[in-house]
Structures are given as C-alpha cells and as structure tokens.
Amino acid sequence: MGYFGCTIGIVGNHDDFGPDLSRVQSLDRAHFLTQGTATTHGLRVAGQSGIIGRTDKNFRLTEDAYLKGVASLLRQAPHVLLTHLSPRINAEGLQGEAQLTAVLAKGPRTLVLCGHSHWPTVEPQVLANGTQVLNADGKVFILTRA
Fold first, then answer.
1. Please, what is the Cα angle at 40 between 11 and 97, to 5 degrees?
2. What does pTM read for this prediction?
3. Residue 87 DSSP code
4. For 24-48, what is each residue's pLDDT tens digit?
5. pLDDT at 1 (0 to 100)
6. Residues 73 and 37: beta-carbon distance below 8 Å
7. CA 81 to CA 111: how far, in whole Å?
8. Which InterPro entries match (predicted)?
9. Are 124 and 86 in contact (CB under 8 A)?
C-alpha cells in the first residue's frame, strides 16, 4: 500500500509516454485525465491535458477544442480543475492564455491548478468570479482539509 490513496494527473506538451501510454492509463489508484473527471474522497477533480497548438504535435489541441473542453469540464462543477496551460493575469503581469482566463471567469468558482508558464509567485490569483488559480510550474502545493 502506498502513501497516497489516489493520484490524479494530466500531461503537458512535453510529456511523451510512447507505447507505454496505455500502461499509465491502467495504473491502480491513478487517474490520467486527458479531458475528464475523477472523484476521490468526495473531491471532484477535472483535468484538461495539453496546450493549444498544432494538432500534429504531442498533446496539442486547436484553440476551439481546448477551450470548449475546459468549458465542458467547468459545467460539471469540479472542486478542482487541472490545466497544463495557465490563464493570463494581466493585472499582475503573469503570462498565460487570455482566452483561457475568459473561459475560467465565466465558469463556476473553482480551484485551478495550472502550469506551462512560470509565475514568480505562490499566491493564489483570484478571478472576478472567485476562481482561485495556483500556478504549479516549478512548485509543489500540498492541499489539506480545513
């Protein structure tokens, strides 16, 4: 028995499992989300893998497909949303995708864990709808129950 009851993750554009992708997807107590949800201990986690880009490259989707995927996940009211891409936070000068920011701001309030673009802060960024965004690029966050 491991230390953790469950692992839920997504992949980015530089991840490559080659022929072992099906082995990753079939791991016990692990959920590999390309675009989907997993629930553990009453916590509903949604995940959108990849980035916006050329679809002939690894884990990339068209802008429309990526954003529609995120919007669809948000309609399921997850407690946590995992995205490889970061939203752009103009007021703080934090890099990311402005289109993703717009989609997140229209959805229900949630906690977003993202990456891809490095943000020099560990502080949550709060969108107008109350969504909190934590950029995990080069960082580790440990979340516990209050």
1. 35
2. 0.90
3. B
4. 777 777 888 989 999 988 899 999 9
5. 44
6. yes
7. 6
8. Metallo-depent_PP-like
9. no
